[in-house]
Design goal:
By secondary structure, the chain is α+β, with helices and mostly antiparallel strands. It is 11% helix and 25% strand. It has 1 helix and 6 strands, in the order E-E-E-E-E-E-H. A hairpin with a 6-residue loop joins strand 1 and strand 2.
Length: 118
Amino acid sequence: MSVNTSHKLDTFTCSWCGLVVSTYAADGARRNHCPSCLRSQHVLDQIEGGPSDCGARMSPISIAVLRGGEWMLVHRCVRCDELTANPICADDNQLVLMRIAVRPLAEPPFPLETFGSL
């Protein structure tokens, strides 16, 4: 009897919240971040000449929406400040996603009182 290893379930433990996470989302898409806290680990350096695979935590800082409507989660490495963007997975924490998406409106870089004098 042969064992099919092509569907091996890989997991990782979130370095922030400790959740054991499957590397595949519920819809079968590859995942690289925790579906609960949305944090990631810096394991692939995208910048030429950068500190390859520094291993630090990646904090979710923003949401980007592509022309086709696909949402991307933007992470920043806490050690080397590299930015990455990865697709949002179907089972990601929707409350945390919305908090990140509305943060620029809730905490603008200027006083809201400015609008009163316009």
